[in-house]
Amino acid sequence: MSALPTGAELLALERQVRRHGSGLEAPQLLGCWRLDQVWPKGSPRPSAFSGALLRAVQARLEITAPEAGAGGPGALALSNAVTLGPVELRFSGLGRLQGSRPLLQFSFQRLQLSLGGRVLLQRTLPEPAPQRWPFFALIARDASGWLAARGRGGGLALWRLA
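RESULT FIELD:
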């Protein structure tokens, strides 16, 4: 599947992954992923409005290797950011893969607001209890450059590698 998958194709992949796992590993997730489409919980169709809005604000998920010693073995550094003109809002923290599906569990530790690359506001965020951490249940990552996952709230997301 080299083109972006349809909602029906993603649901079929998700059923398969629930039974057999995805085999995804941390190195396959590294990169800057631009959000392309979102499907609300229970919807067979992507939300045209939400997708367009999130693309307009350049919503992205950045996954990198953490600084040496941060988060322990298997940790990943994550940030979620949106940009509107010169304004950027970024949440950053650590995460890790769990299980065979796997789940990408994460916790944002910092919030940063920047204007033209200059930090206006930076705050430390309280850490939720481990059972309340957000996660993405990873579905697939295609060699052509897309990643699909279902979030803790039940929505489905499709990103493209930037």
